[in-house]
Specification:
Elements: H1 2-20, E1 28-31, E2 38-40, E3 44-50, E4 64-73, E5 81-90, E6 95-106, E7 109-119, E8 124-129, E9 132-134, E10 137-139, E11 143-145, E12 153-158, E13 166-168, E14 170-173, E15 179-184, E16 215-222, E17 225-232, E18 236-247, E19 250-261, E20 267-272, H2 275-283, E21 289-299, E22 305-315
Antiparallel strand pairs: 1-15, 2-11, 3-8, 3-12, 4-7, 4-15, 5-6, 5-8, 6-13, 9-10, 12-14, 16-17, 17-20, 18-19, 18-21, 21-22
């Protein structure tokens, strides 16, 4: 008995620990954490063509959006250097196409910059130093890289490879590019990272908090059915139902179904009377009434439900 109690207690404790543990972030990193110790002329765009397995993958493990770029350059410099970070996509062999780019400042030491660069699985990071001035003196761009990295291959393409251009990246030395990207998922494919840039990852149309749906419903009684007209503030699926108490604990349920309602347009739903309700109305005199309670429910892209409730009086038909 004591053994069974102890086992149950351990299971309960494990469940509590699982509930208390914080949820893991969906963001991942790719690139290289190496510390730059050399520069190439600004006439080249650099990328890491190959590297031994490390703590993070060299290329993007999945599609998504790069939201941060971290660089690691010598801390002895008294100034930050501007660099153009490229997203490179393989076009066969050592051919790579620059599909996107962003300019960031590589400050001395480890620095992080916010960016928004959509990627596909397998994309890699490239780097090109940009010219700048320091205390009025023009300085050529610094294309940073990590030199003497056994088992690695630093690829170099002539010039600044612009977005949309494809270039050959020849193996230049055993080096790597000192860049790390933070990659976030992009469930709605709107080009914004779901964790830090998109407050409504369920809908591509907005990046702020998912808008709640305002819903208005109106009823029209006629014959053996009730027409319900519904309007919403944004396009949303709407479900309409109704209930009527028939007495002695019984009730009738009316189903109007679910329809997509465009923003600002009236859509008609029909609540047909079931047999039990028709029979009850035939039992009642014309001065007697039953109350139909109607609920119209709209769901936004985040799954939040807005409702409008109304009542309709059903006259006896006896």
């Amino acid at each position: 008995m004591r053994k069974r109690i102890a086992t149950a207690a351990l299971s309960a404790l494990g469940a509590m620990l699982l509930l208390a543990a914080p949820s893991a972030s969906a963001a991942v990193e790719f690139g290289d954490n190496c510390v730059a110790d050399d520069v190439a002329p600004d006439t080249y765009t650099l990328t890491t063509l190959a590297a031994p397995p490390g703590p993070i993958p060299l290329t993007a493990p999945s599609a998504g959006v790069v939201t941060k770029i971290r660089s690691n350059v010598p801390a002895v410099l008294p100034f930050a250097t501007p660099i153009s970070v490229k997203i490179l996509r393989n076009a066969g062999g050592n051919l790579y196409t620059a599909v996107n780019q962003a300019t960031v400042n590589a400050a001395p030491g480890i620095s992080t910059s916010n960016v928004r660069l959509p990627v596909l699985a397998g994309d890699r990071l490239g780097l090109h130093g940009l010219p700048f001035s320091f205390e009025g003196t023009p300085i050529e761009g610094f294309s940073w890289y990590c030199d003497e990295m056994p088992g690695s291959t630093l690829g170099a393409a002539l010039g600044d490879v612009p977005t949309g251009a494809t270039a050959v990246f020849e193996g230049a030395t055993d080096g790597r590019v000192p860049l790390v990207a933070t990659l976030e998922p992009d469930a709605d494919n709107d080009g914004f990272g779901d964790e830090s840039q998109d407050l409504c990852p369920q809908g591509a149309a907005v990046q702020t908090a998912c808008p709640a749906v305002t819903i208005d419903a109106y009823s029209l009684v006629g014959g053996n059915a009730v027409k319900v007209l519904v309007a919403t503030s944004t396009q949303a699926p709407v479900k309409v139902t109704g209930t009527v108490k028939l007495g002695k604990g019984s009730k009738a349920t009316l189903k109007g179904g679910t329809k997509g309602v465009p923003a600002g347009k009236l859509v008609r739903f029909t609540l047909k009377f079931p047999g039990s309700l028709k029979e009850k109305l035939r039992e009642l005199e014309s001065n007697q009434k039953l109350t139909l309670k109607i609920t119209a429910s709209a769901t936004n892209v985040a799954g939040q439900v807005s409702t409008d409730k109304l009542k309709a009086k059903l006259k006896g038909q006896g």
